[in-house]
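Below: protein 1.
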Amino acid sequence: MSRALRPGLVATILIAAVVLRVAEVQRTDSTYRPVNDAGTYLTLASEIAHTGDYSLSHRPGSGAGGTRGPSAYFAPGYPYFLALVDLIDGHAVRRDGAIHPARISQAVLGTTTVALTGLVALELFGPLAGLIALIIAAVYPVGIELAGTLVAENLLAPLVLAAVYAALRVRRASAPVRAYGWIAGAGVLTGLATLTHENAALMLVPLIAAVWAARPRSLLAPALLVVATALTILPWTLRNQAVMHRFIPISDETGITLVGAYNAASAANPVVPYKWRIFYGIPGERSLIHQAGRLTEPQIGDRLQHQALHYISQHPSAPLDVAFHNTLRLFELEGTYAWQASASASSLPSSTARVGV
């Protein structure tokens, strides 16, 4: 295939990718209901579109788990992205008109992920691999399904891939200033990914190795990567210090997240061991929902984190058990109930999720 035809072929694949994703949005428009995190993302986006921030109310129930606000539970990247969609489209309300534009934006994000998948493969393995990766990503059923679902991973994926691509381009930089530009870009993108999902901070480990391997080697390269990442995260950390009166780099979700898995009831679940549950769904913790309205997010988070760490101290193998069962769920090997429960939590119909499985 001549080089002259390749841009046209790539454009055709990307057009097909966006058409498939928009078609999925339209197909499920009448049945999709943004529940759980998806509904919260839309609420936060509306607050941001109106005020520039999450609600700063101190009333009971305005924080995570029924606590008093303000809130720093949800990482800000995805809500701010949806707020931008609200502002562009003119629908800054949680329901009705705001849902469809938000879902269309997921189709755009999904197509961006397809393009970046091809670019990363091109950079690593050459034109043929890049083209094959592009085609697979364009028609991958899970990628198409997620285009109609409001999940933070839709934004996380292109940011992570863009950071990887920027780090890979350092090797081919024609001058040091260009190399450092790519490194700084990788750092900013890693920071944005981390602001979307805290786990993305782990990307620093392979990215540091990638920029360090570039010639000539210099400690400035990994240092610039880390500093650019930290500076991108810093404004949100300062916001949290100002409104939460606590050092919270991104989110205060640790306590609620840990105790949801590390408790006796989750461990004893006969169908899906260590399946996460909200804290007031844990036997013996129901009364905490009545206390939550008097507590702030950091206060309830500290209490629940202490409980989770106490459970781990009494059951030292629990982290290994959790990792094992999470790995089974990752590869859809935990049984039908596990993936159906995950699909329900994301508002995916079982028939649609079955295609991905």
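Below: protein 2.
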Amino acid sequence: EEYMMKTNVDLRNGFAKALTVSGNGLDAFKARSEGRKYVQEYANAALARGSKSGSIKGVSDAVAEGHPENVKGPLMARIADNAPLGKKDPKVDRDNAATFLFAGHDTTANLMTHFTYEMAKRPGWQKKLQVEVDAMFDKAKKENRKLEYTDLANLKVMKNCINEVLRLWPSVPNGTFREFQYDDAIMGPDGKLVTVKKGTNCTISPWLLHRNEELWGEDVNDFNPDRDWKPEEDWYGHEMWATNPESDRYAPFTHPPRDCMGKNFAQMEARIILSYMFHQYDIELAPPTKGLELDEISINNGTFGPKAGLFVQLHKRR
């Protein structure tokens, strides 16, 4: 934890530069190159530390036999030993490590922070959520069992609130950079087609997409979990399946085929933690957060999260 605190500022700055879209074209390109270099060096160092712990074998066999808990050792070492493509190209291991270091931590933490803010600010929605999670825990207790994946998938209020939090406060507001694989034509602002050549770099910002009034209506800037979600934004009614909840107006995990590989894990992780939190506590905002809007306390450093934490007051329920 101490090491993470010491490196967090520089690391977040590097990640922010790697995703920047600000400034003129040349400045943005230089900033992205500098940021990527820092992130890549950090990921390489993490892999090197993991490899010093020795080789870790048997991951595939352990998972196939239904006993993944038998695999012990640092995560980075497991990646290095069990990613076939990494044997051919070290950059694959490096990029996988970077994904775990950044996308697998900051994004989910920021989602839960923003979710907690919105619930603390809106007691009515918090109560609806608590009724739902209380029923889930009571059902599991009555049946003398632990929570299961299907329990989390049936949290309708939780799902809609998470969807709305990710719409208003996407964890990666700049999106990710893509390269056109072939020549294409897109509609320009004047209604005319614009030819885009193969190899052109582009990005679609979820922040701008999610706050487009033409796509979402006049209440685009309002927190409204009950809005009319499209079927594809709602897993087509099948909660947390291995699909991406995205559409032409909604892309918190970006667009396939290279969308977030941890999207379902992140949803499950967030639902478990938030369920326990709001089952056990009533939560309200506390100074210095109280009285401030969310965009006043958060900052876009590649991932969108709080500048100095979220201050709340907890009241024990159970």
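Residues 1-103 form one domain.
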